[in-house]
Amino acid sequence: MEKNVNYDPSFAQEVFENVDAGEEIKMCMNCGVCAGSCPLRFNMDYPPRQIFQMIRLGKREEVLNAKSIMLCTSCYTCKVRCPRSIPVIDVMHGLAHYAIKQGILTRRDTANFGREFWNQVYRLGRIDEKDLPRRVFFAAGFIEGIKSTLKYLDMGLKLLLHRRMKLLPERKIKGIQSLRKMLDKAEKMGKGGAAA
Amino acid sequence: MAEVETTNQSILVVGGGMSGITAALEAAEAGHNVVLVEKNPYLGGRVTQLYQYFPKLCPPNCGLEINFRRMKLNPKIRFFTMAEVTGISGQEGDYDVTVKLAPRYVNEKCTCCGKCAEVCESEIDNPFNFGMDKIKAAYLPHEFAFPMRYVLDPTISGTEEGKKCKEACEYDAVDLEMKETTFDLKVGAIVWAAGWDPYDASRVEYYGFGEYKNVITNVMMERLASPNGPTGGKILRPSDGKEPKNVAFIQCAGSRDENHLPYCSGICCLASMKHSTYLREQYPDCDVTIFFIDIRALDRLEDFYTKVQGDEKLSFIKSKIANISEDEETGDLLLEGENTNTGEQIRTSFDLVVLATGMVPNKIEIEPSPDVSYDEYGFFAYDPEKTGIYGAGCVRRPTDVASCVQDATGAALKAIQSIARR
Fold first, then answer.
1. In a domain, B107, yes or no
2. Is B234 in CB contact (< 8 Å) with chain A?
3. Of B153, B296, B315, B361, which sits with the fewest C-beta atoms within 10 Å of its C-beta?
4. For every one of its 422 residues, what pLDDT tens digit does chain B have, with 9 covering 90 and above?
5. Does residue A196 lie within any of the structural domains?
6. Measured between CB atoms, does B323 come within 8 Å of chain A?
């Protein structure tokens, strides 16, 4: 990292105003426990702590294009361990959401998956283990869809074998209307979570 | 035992550690009658468990000896060990205090000949060494204990073994008939100097303290380095007794953490640096790494930080370690975290890990509690409206011994003023 840095608060201000839980990054004291706890840290370009620091530095493009904000799997370890009680996963999801809203699709498949997941939960109240991958795989085109299907064929067969996946389409849950009310309200309340 | 005459001109000091001893002595030497009560069978508190003080790296015994001598010479001080305050009522100038005395089963005739321990067979975890070794159930708490007198553990007092100890004693010092007693005191002011407890490191579950044998705490390190400790002063790994070659210190283990202690205990950085000097003195080849969030070496103590930084075998890495896992075969420990200066991931093995845990103040836990103010962390807060009971030392803020002595002197003055106002 550079020795001399110029702090530019404009991006930080943008994050505080537009990103879910964005203001919480003010609490960060750079201990690095989030980075050390993250199961995906070896795949991340910047661990959460560095993302927060880059926001303070005003590195807008680097942050919104970062792979790591799309990678969070909501395991909650960082949020539980953070000594300053920063809801790290909320910030990461909030940043991902904000990046997508800005039209930045660093990991298009992750973004697609998030959207399809949300749509399906909204429609059915549950996840259809055949339908969700189908929608995600074929979003990139027919040939790509066939390729991805073949790649995950083994896993699909295993899911069938263990009755984790039904051959028939999944049905809506009882009381889907109440669930939709909750989801609508959740969407209004926040600045936006994982679902784009 | 309890023929202690006090008046509303007397001062009660609760806690016989460095702060309590200081407050008691200063008040007594100013002419006041003082009663000192201590929970342990010996005076001196946690200072007796230290190997060396920072930054001068001198042993604490000489200072304690001087204070004990001052105490022996001063007829104005009465002290009780194995005593706990169980009730405080009344108000400034007129407190009624109840003190409970636990039976020691050994009276003042004890000469510390050790015959009772020779015949005693059952052993208990040694509380003085944090359970790292065993001692006989008839024991001297430690070799510099003041008062210099044995203790019989209650587990053997009513048994055949207790009788054997009694028979072995040539001086008729073992008294198996001793019972728990209580007595009342009338005092005008109280100095609360009950000290601190180390934070329970097992609550920081990702460090595996209690599960992994080679993960120890800073207070245990102090005992390991002490000549009267469980290993005779040689720092050895608890799992296999081997000499450590590569030691890690984890600062803020449960400190500055809203899930644990939100505050900085102020002494742990210096303590770990001091521990590194213990290690480097014993093992010239030993590598030491201190993982920290921020090094807090305040004021003149920064000189010590600068001094140890000159040691090329000692490195400081800015990182709060996020995980420890144990290699079951070797007992070595894998530390994971992020070096927040370079952004690199840390995955390094060490053969001994020392957790720098913080201080938890011992509040007044008596029902009904007397009217005192605490800050948000449970330390005594200064409140000019509430007079009569004054905190001293680590119950007021986490700090080192030297500051405790100063603070206790101030508390003694507050108590004297409180009495003078009546």
1. no
2. no
3. B315
4. 456 788 889 999 999 999 999 999 999 999 999 999 999 999 999 999 999 999 999 999 999 999 999 999 999 999 999 999 999 999 999 999 999 999 999 999 999 999 999 999 999 999 999 999 999 999 999 999 999 999 999 999 989 999 999 999 999 999 999 999 999 999 999 999 999 999 999 999 999 999 999 999 999 999 999 999 999 999 999 999 999 999 999 999 999 999 999 999 999 999 999 999 999 999 999 999 999 999 999 889 999 999 999 999 999 999 999 999 999 999 999 999 999 999 999 999 999 999 999 999 999 999 889 999 999 999 999 898 999 999 999 999 999 999 999 999 999 999 999 999 87
5. no
6. yes
Same domain, yes or no: B15 and B159: no
| The two structure tokens encoding residue B282 | 């014993």
Q: How far is B348 from chain A (nearest CA, A)?
A: 12
Q: CB-CB: which of B206, B252, B343 is closest to A1? A: B343
pLDDT digits (tens, 9 = 90+) for A114-128: 888 989 999 999 988
Size of interface A-B (CB pairs under 8 A): 67
> Side-chain half-sphere of A194: how many Cα atoms within 13 Å?
16
- Dist CA B275 CA B304 (whole Å): 12
Domain around B328 = 200-358
**Structural domain contains residue B108:** no
**Nearest Cβ partner for B337 among A36, A42, A84:** A36
Same domain, B323 and B188: no
Residues of B within 8 A of A50 (CB-CB) are 343
Q: Please indicate, yes or no, whether residues B258 and B407 belong to a single structural domain of this protein.
A: no
Domain range holding A44? Answer: 9-101
Taking the C-alpha atoms of residue B258 and residue B164, their distance in angstroms, rounded to an integer, is 52
- CA-to-CA distance for A1 and B156, rounded, in angstroms? 64
User: Which of A68, A69, A92, A66 minimizes the C-alpha distance to A79?
Assistant: A92
My answer on whether B297 and B329 are in the same domain is yes
For chain A, the domain total comes to 2
Give the chain B residue whose CA is nearest to the CA of A77.
B322
B267 in contact with A, Cβ within 8 Å: no
The answer to whether A83 contacts B257, with C-beta atoms less than 8 Å apart, is yes
Question: In this structure, which amino acid lies at residue B71?
Answer: M
A36: closest chain B residue by CA: B337
User: Cα dist. A194→A77, A113, A127, B40, B104 in Å?
Assistant: 17, 10, 16, 56, 64
CB B26 within 8 A of CB B2: no
Per-residue DSSP letters for A50-93?
HHHHHHHHT-HHHHHT-SHHHH-----HHHHH-TT---HHHHHH
Q: Does A85 sit within 8 Å of B319, measured CB to CB?
A: no
Burial tier of A73 (Cβ tally within 10 Å: 0-12, 13-18, 19+): exposed
CA distances from A86 to A70, B345, B405 (A): 18, 21, 38
CATH number for the domain including B263? 3.50.50.60
User: What is the structure's pLDDT at B5?
Assistant: 81
